[in-house]
Design goal:
single chain; about 160 residues; 8 strands; about 15% helix
């Protein structure tokens, strides 16, 4: 019982402050006789601190019996593309450079220890927001990563 409570609390803490994703679609990559197929899932989330910037993430989702039960560990493969979808409004903490390397999205990719994260950086010199997606694990993470940049310019 204590373990379930600890896992629930850990999950809530990991999700705090990060954006929630909306699934846009998916494609099956491997047929599984039992349980859901392996797939690539496409999700979208809006940057919680930057109005009118939406990021799209494609990531591997493990199927099979373990995947169907939420016990499988997804691979670290992911891609990201962030877009300006209207007039960008950057919060004061970002413009002042106080939000350097801020996690804007976090998704659990294993039962407890592994997660996919998106970190936002502000390149003040080039007036650009840079989004880095990567997977980490308590013991060892993955060097696999993807990058997207959104120049901050007037919307036309």
């Amino acid at each position: 019982m204590k373990c379930k409570v600890m896992v629930s609390l850990l999950s809530l803490l990991l999700a705090a402050g990060a954006a929630r994703a909306e699934q846009i679609g998916s494609v099956d990559t491997v047929f599984k006789m039992f349980g859901p197929d392996h797939k690539i899932v496409v999700e979208a989330f809006d940057d919680p601190d930057v109005k009118n910037v939406t990021c799209y993430i494609s990531r591997a989702k493990t199927g099979g019996i373990k995947g169907g039960l939420g016990l499988a560990e997804d691979t670290a493969d992911a891609a990201i593309s962030c877009q300006q979808v209207g007039p960008v409004e950057v919060s004061e903490k970002i413009a002042a450079g106080k939000a350097e390397g801020e996690v804007v999205f976090r998704k659990r990719t294993s039962l407890v220890f592994k997660k996919l994260q998106v970190v936002r950086f502000y390149d003040k010199q080039r007036h650009t927001l840079v989004y880095l997606s990567y997977s980490d694990k308590i013991v060892d993470g993955s060097p696999k990563n993807a990058l997207s940049a959104v120049p901050i310019m007037p919307w036309k």
